[in-house]
Amino acid sequence: MTDTIEPMPRARIDHQQFAQQLVEAAKADGVELVGPDGLLTGLTKTVLETALEAELSEHLGYDRHDPAGRDGGNSRNGTRTKTVLTEIGPVEIEVPRDRDASFEPQIVRKRQRRLDGIDEIVLSLTARGLTTGEVAAHFAEVYGAKVSKDTISRITDKVLDELGEWQNRPLDAVYPVLFIDALYVKVRDGQVTNRPFYVVIGVTVDGQRDILGIWAGEGGTGGEGAKFWLQVLTEIKNRGVGDVCIAVCDGLKGLPEAITTAWPQAVVQTCVLHLIRNTFRYASRRYWEQLAKDLRPVYTAPTEAAAQARFAEFAETWGGQYPAIIALWRAAWSEFVPFLDYDVEIRKVICSTNAIESLNARYRRAIKARGHFPTEQAALKCLYLVTRSLDPTGKGRTRWAMRWKPALNAFAITFAGRIVPSNGN
Hints:
Helix content is 47%, strand content 17%. By secondary structure, the chain is of the alpha/beta class.
């Protein structure tokens, strides 16, 4: 019988115990944890230099001081000092060299002055609304490192290719609901003007918020027209979206016609929240609370007939004082009433403010911090960085609602045969 020899298990490092030993040793020697001469700086220096030495050994084919390297052609040729910016601040390291200069390190590449983690910090800070000047000040204050505004701009420019890929990525075959919203951004084009940027948000069959893309409008008042919207929606359709059940929008010229051209079965629904919000524009702030209270029976009515009756009461109460509000609702009525045919769970999805308003709040915070943008591309880059920060996968997806199953069932019944949930969801 042949004995089998079990391989020896590889030693495992207890990282917590190791870290505790390092901290205790540092304290015993009076060494600070952070700072230029701190434990973390020294540890980072050691790890980087050790990794670079290992890379050079692999490149040459022998370890340091190995006799195999004698008279073997290329060999080690000392080191050069280099300072790199890391997540804990500037770290000075010794980079090993070889005689024929063929060594191309990967841990810290030639001419690289920042570790990759620094770029992610810059992108994260920019997405949170900090200007290039504020990001530079942050690095000076927190890391004691000088990072120029031009360097920060170059770092953020690296996402432009990523933005193009994201804007052209494949999409789901069907979305129960599509929201089309507008943001106004100040862009300098000869002179500073308000430019509309349109964000299209889908609710997936799995109850996720999917930001499909961001498009820059041409006019200052959002009056692009049917041709513009058909181009945008055709682009979305060509990326794989074969069906949309409900498209929610807010009085954008030419959009309803473009929606039904792209997806003939789609129901165009005016945004009830925007309709209510626009109502307040015509009224004194002191009446907002009462207006909201009197409008609620209209948009929560069980049927269109009941809504008509409640609206007649509303018009009788407020028509004399605010005739423009009555005209607003009557003009939007044909695109408002489809809402009344839906199950309460579908109404909740259409009226859900959190998923959209939280996104808009992040966009507006980043926009406000900059005042205005020099180009359309700069504005798109800013909005994309915010989108990117919401989803670690970079796809712009987050959860729409915790209680999605009741809504999914309501959609599946109302739009029979068109809603198919993915496996395992």
